[in-house]
Structure formats: C-alpha cells, structure tokens
Design brief:
It is a single chain. By secondary structure, the chain is of the alpha/beta class. Helices cover 28% and strands 34% of the residues. The protein contains nine helices and 16 strands. Strands 6-1-2-5-4-3-7 form a seven-stranded antiparallel β-sheet, sandwiched between helices. α3 packs parallel to α4 and α5 packs parallel to α6. The longest helix has 13 residues. It starts with a strand and ends with a helix. The structure holds FE2/S2 (inorganic) cluster (FES). The site of FE2/S2 (inorganic) cluster has 12 residues, from loops. FE2/S2 (inorganic) cluster binds next to loops.
Length: 274
C-alpha cells in the first residue's frame, strides 16, 4: 500500500497528493508519469509527476477531477493509502542546454511544467514561462513556476488576472522579439498544444508537447495510448509522452480521447447514485 503523506486542495477540483513511494522517488525525472489504482477493483489512471523528494521518499502528483476515478481520488485524504503505484514511466523530458526556452503551461499543467522549467534553468538555459488559465480562480503554483523560471508571463482568458490573452499571444511576441527562442515546450489541453505548435511553425522553432491520451497499462501492451506522429504509429506511454509538436496528428488524438466519454458519463451517474 502507498500512503498519502499530504493532500492539498489547490483550486476548485484540483488537488495535490504527496505519496510515500521511495523506490519511485529515487528514479523520477521531469516529464515522466506514474499509474495508480485506488483499490483492487479500481481503474488504472496515469498522472504526471509534479515533484519528488528522494530523501523523504515521496512523489507528488496533481489530479484534476475529470472522471469517476479522479473524483474518488479527490475524496481521499492524508493518511489514506493507494493499492497500486507504478512508475516512473515514459521517457523523461530531454533537458539539454539550448539557450532560450519558452515553457507554456495551460491550466493545471503548471504542475508538470514547473519541474521541467526548473531543470532547464539549472542546465543553464534562459527560461521564460507563460502560465495561462481561463480565469484567476484556476491559477495555482504561480510562485513555484516564477522561481523555476527567469521570467514569467501570466495570462487569463477573461482578464481576471494577469494579461487578458490566450497563451499564444505572448508566445508569438517572444518569437517575434529579440529573445532568439531556441525551443518551446507546451503542455496543457490538446487544443492549446495544437495552437502553440501552429504559432511556432512559421518561426521554425523546435516545439515539444507532452501528450495525455487515455492509458490503461502504461507499458506499451494495450495500444490504448496510440497516436500518429509524422505519419507513424507511436505509443505515448513508451515512446513519449514528449513528441515533436509539429508532427502530431491532433485530430486523431482528440477524437480518440473522446471515445469513452459516454461510458464515463454513465459511470459518474452510477457512482453518484451508489
Ligand atoms: S497505455 Fe497501453 S500501450 Fe500505452
């Protein structure tokens, strides 16, 4: 069993869990993910690693309530335990020294982007981060991302906090300006990643996205996380989750992510009635 050392509410429907799992904490790297199961009959869900502490033996994940299992997880608290915790999985984000890197975090992906930005900065890159959310109520870890970056730009769709803009606006300005951006790392909803890659394309800037399709085993066996990248079939759990954003088939990705939506709705109704 894997004990929850800390549970914290970050913003409505988004929660942080620090879990005791020393063997994973020793090996986790930025960009990797883990798969958990709440109990013996529970479904397996992937969560990207938001932090780790090898000394404490803990791994931190951030979970947004989007389905039956994440809602059940949201009801768990400090001291509760998970039956399964598998990881770290996936290929870590490549952290090299390239110069100026722009990290774009859409919504709750700030939890994923922050350790990547920190590692890039520690590797000697100039890191400019853009944190975007629909409104002020959905923003968290602003100070964490600011500390991990050389510069931070905050945007909200409705202008309730920071600059009223989509993340692609400051991204385009940075690409047009004097920063000599060498790489963009965009993580968030698929639509946001798609438009970030469309923004960088005319500038020919290397753009990395972290894909988040439906997963089951997380080890390359079930085929559930299949995506098309540059016309080739890839499995996000073993070939990713990071890919060249200019080569991803976002249409296929989005439609495959909706496959179980009707089942998920039924499941949520049934679990609320139970
Ligand atoms: S989750 Fe099964 S192959 Fe990737």
């Amino acid at each position: 069993m894997y004990k929850i050392l800390l549970r914290q509410d970050l913003v409505p429907n988004t929660h942080l869990f620090k879990i005791e799992v020393p063997e994973v904490a020793r090996k986790a790297r930025p960009g990797q993910f883990i798969v958990i199961r709440i109990d013996e009959k529970g479904e397996r869900i992937p969560l990207t690693v938001a932090g780790w502490d090898a000394e404490e033996g803990s791994v931190t994940v951030v979970c947004q309530e989007v389905g039956t299992t994440t809602r059940r997880l949201a009801k768990m608290g400090t001291g509760d335990s998970l039956v399964d915790f598998v990881g770290p999985l996936g290929i870590p984000t490549h952290i090299g020294k390239v110069g100026t890197v722009v990290c774009v975090a859409g919504g709750f992906a700030v939890a994923v982007v922050t350790p990547i930005a920190r590692a890039l900065k520690e590797a000697g890159n100039r890191v400019i981060s853009i944190l975007g959310a629909r409104n002020q109520d959905l923003i968290f870890w602003e100070e964490e991302l600011r500390a991990a970056s050389d510069e931070l730009i905050v945007t909200t769709d409705d202008g309730s906090y920071g600059r009223k803009a989509l993340v692609t606006e400051p991204l385009k300005e940075l690409l047009e300006g004097d920063e000599n951006v060498k790489r963009v790392i965009a993580i968030g909803p698929s639509i946001m990643m798609k438009f970030c890659t469309k923004t960088t394309e005319p500038f020919g800037v290397d753009t990395v996205v972290s894909l988040n399709p439906i997963m089951v085993d997380g080890t390359g066996m079930c085929g559930c996380c299949r995506v098309s990248v540059d016309g080739q079939t890839k499995f996000v759990c073993v070939d990713g989750p990071d890919f060249d954003g200019h080569k991803v088939d976002y249409g296929e990705l989005t439609s495959r992510m909706k496959v179980y939506t009707p089942h998920e709705k039924i499941c949520m109704v049934l679990s609320e009635e139970a």
